[in-house]
Design goal:
It catalyses: 2 GTP = 3',3'-c-di-GMP + 2 diphosphate. The chain is of the alpha+beta class. The chain folds into 2 domains: 220 residues, no CATH class; 176 residues, Reverse transcriptase/Diguanylate cyclase domain (Alpha-Beta Plaits, 2-Layer Sandwich), CATH 3.30.70. Strand 4, helix 13 and strand 5 form a beta-alpha-beta unit. It is elongated and about 100 Å long. The longest helix has 41 residues. It starts with a helix and ends in a 14-residue tail after the last helix. 64% of the residues lie in helices and 8% in strands. The structure holds guanosine-5'-triphosphate. The site of guanosine-5'-triphosphate (GTP) has 21 residues, from strand 1, helix 10 and helix 11.
């Protein structure tokens, strides 16, 4: 499984590759495409609700206008009403219900497509009936419906396009065989054809823009969670991820362990080798640490300066101690020369480990971090390059608490709290 920070880095790389590759075909790589569909469904509520509202308002207002302002003869009004209120309106109401109850479901997409078909079929039906009595229900209304669908339904372009093409063919056939309006019919077809073209162009460009905006916003969201130097979670993301993992541990009643890890004598390393080498050493240590967060709820991040935090969820005492010891060993095995370290001739880390038993799973994460910090301080005092473990206890008296090593005073240079 992926380490916690890799779970953030992988999408970042994927998105950058997608931006470089482009998406003129309106398709992303499969992993991104799935995420985009979710986003599209979530973000389409308002747009789809507006489209349904326009459909309902359109049917109602044309019913009102037909018999009053337009003065449609009585026989035509009857047929028109039947189409409007037994075909078009029920479909619009089904979509309204869907939109109210399952606004982000996949069935909403199907509802939008059916609405499109029913609205166009309804208008064409009315046009055929009207034309037989010499009345001309504007064909352009079909074109306007197509533009509205492409711009507001938020159904993906490649799903809508075949439907639109089928509707164009059906419309032309109906126009040529059933509608008899002479030259004005040709003019209608020409202007409606232009509206269809506008619908296709608007549909393509609006989906392209939505995809472009989503890619960039998602990239920024991921980047804002990563520490630029090490690629681990940054302090802000670390705190929220720790809080999330901790809440999960509380709900599920899981034991867990938190390790605070600090590079030994890193100030001396910088002084001796320079800050650029210091940065490279930090990156190398971070890579070694990231490999120790292997399960989805494990967390690894840069706490600040040369200090890191690892959380292992659902982890027993022995397992946590073994993992902490492995962290220390793995950094030592990198053999990054450190001529000024009092602990070893290479870069080493000290680790403060706090294990939290199931019965203390509801302990505040801040208290657990404080205990881990105290253990780290002890590891430093005892000579560095070692692990000091402690078990979380909620029943420490004030006296016991004050006997424990206190967290370090604030040090601006190291970026500690
Ligand atoms: N190169 C580099 N150095 C950093 C970075 N962040 C913090 N540091 C350095 O880390 C050092 C931390 O020093 P201290 O807090 O005094 O601790 P230490 O020298 O590691 O000593 P002990 O922790 O007691 O073993 C400081 O010199 C900081 O400048 C960074 O991003 N890059």
């Amino acid at each position: 499984m992926q380490p916690a920070d890799a779970a953030e880095q992988a999408p970042t790389r994927l998105i950058q590759r997608q931006i470089d590759r482009g998406f003129a075909s309106l398709r992303f790589m499969p992993a991104l495409e799935r995420e985009f569909h979710d986003y599209l469904r979530q973000s389409s509520r308002l747009s789809r609700a507006s489209l349904i509202f326009l459909a309902v308002a359109g049917v109602l207002s044309s019913a009102l206008i037909d018999s009053t302002w337009l003065g449609l003869p009585f026989e035509l009004v009857g047929t028109t009403r039947a189409i409007q209120f037994t075909v078009m309106m029920p479909m619009a109401l089904i979509c309204t219900l869907l939109c109210l109850r399952h606004p982000t479901s996949r069935s909403m997409e199907v509802g939008m497509l059916l609405l499109f078909i029913v609205m166009v079929a309804g208008m064409m039906g009315q046009r055929v009936v009207d034309s037989q009595q010499g009345f001309d229900l504007p064909l352009e209304l079909v074109g306007v419906t197509a533009v509205a669908m492409f711009c507001l339904s938020r159904v993906r372009f490649w799903i809508q396009l075949p439907l639109l093409l089928a509707l164009i063919v059906a419309t032309v056939l109906v126009e040529l065989t059933l509608v008899s309006l002479g030259n004005s019919g040709n003019y209608d077809m020409f202007s409606t054809g232009i509206l269809f073209i506008v619908a296709v162009v608007a549909g393509y460009s609006s989906e392209y823009t939505i995809r472009w905006t989503w890619l960039n916003a998602t990239l920024l969201r991921y980047l804002s969670r990563l520490d630029r130097l090490t690629g681990l979670l940054n302090r802000h993301a670390l705190e929220s991820t720790l809080a999330g993992a901790h809440a999960h541990g509380q709900r599920e009643g899981k034991a867990y362990a938190v390790a605070m890890i600090d590079i030994d004598a890193f100030g001396a390393y910088n002084d001796h080798y320079g800050h650029q080498y210091g940065d490279a050493a930090l990156q190398q240590v971070a890579d070694a640490l990231a490999d120790h967060a292997r399960r989805p709820l494990d967390t690894c991040g840069r706490y600040g300066g040369e200090e890191f935090v690892l959380l292992w969820m659902d982890c027993g005492v022995e397992q946590a101690s073994a993992l902490a010891e492995s962290v220390r060993e793995v950094v030592e095995r990198e053999r990054i020369a450190h001529a000024e370290s009092p602990a070893a001739p290479w870069v080493t880390v000290s680790v403060g480990l706090c294990h939290v038993e199931v019965e203390h799973a509801d302990a505040p994460i801040e208290s657990v971090l404080r205990e881990a910090d105290r253990a780290l301080y002890k590891a430093k005092r005892e000579g560095r390059n070692r692990v000091v473990s402690t078990r979380y206890r909620s029943d420490r008296t004030d006296e016991e608490n004050s006997a424990l090593p206190q967290p370090w005073p604030q040090q601006a240079s190291s970026g500690r709290r």
